[in-house]
Amino acid sequence: MIKFFHHLFNPHCQQCHDEFLDSKVCDSCNTLRLEIAALRKHNQQLIDAILNKVNPKEESQQVVIQPEAVNKNLSWRVRRHLLETEDKKAAELLKQKRAEMSSPSVESLEEELEIENALG
Fold first, then answer.
1. Most buried in the list 18, 45, 97, 114, measured by CB within 10 Å?
2. How many domains does the chain fold into?
3. Distance CA 51, CA 45 (A)
4. Using CA atoms, how far apart are residues 18 and 6, in angstroms rounded to an integer?
5. pLDDT at position 108
6. Containing structural domain, residue 116
7. Do 49 and 79 fall within a single domain?
8. Same domain, 3 and 50
9. Residues 79, 70: contact at Cβ < 8 Å?
10. Each residue's pLDDT tens digit, 16-48
11. What is the pLDDT of residues 6-15, one digit of tens each?
12. CA atoms of 98 and 60, how far apart (whole Å)
């Protein structure tokens, strides 16, 4: 309230003018802040890239099953049943892929280690 009356009675006071100039942020400071933010973002991207090369994440092939042309006039029960069956199919495919990837066959392991079959 005091500032209002001061500005009303002394609109061009030297002290008010100096305070205004001090409070104004210069363009070079803003430019530097933007540059620092860009550098931080770039450094974070580099760190992420380095960490991904050191510890690569297992990229699995996503099985994308396009939903069948679902009629909008179908009841929710029918649509839910269709979606559930599609999810079950997708889960079965993922389960089969994981089983193939995780457990190599005994024959392939024997061939790799050059072990002859003791029974035959």
1. 97
2. 2
3. 10
4. 15
5. 75
6. 61-120
7. no
8. yes
9. yes
10. 777 777 777 777 888 898 999 999 999 999 988
11. 777 777 788 8
12. 10
**DSSP annotation string for 43-90:** HHHHHHHHHHHHS----PPP---PPP---TTS-HHHHHHHHHHHHHHH
Quote the tokens at residue 105.
């066959």
d(CA 63, CA 83): 15
Pair of tokens at residue 47: 């760190």
| Contacting residues for 110 by C-beta, under 8 A, at least 6 apart | 117
Nearest Cα to 98, choosing from 55, 61, 69, 68? 61
More confident residue, 18 or 56: 18
Which amino acid is it at 111? Answer: E
pLDDT tens per residue, range 90-119: 999 988 888 777 666 777 777 777 776 655
Task: Quote the DSSP letter at residue 24.
Answer: S
Q: What are phi and psi of 105, to 5 degrees?
A: -70, 155
Residue 82, classified by CB atoms within 10 Å of its CB into exposed (0-12), middle (13-18) or buried (19+), is middle
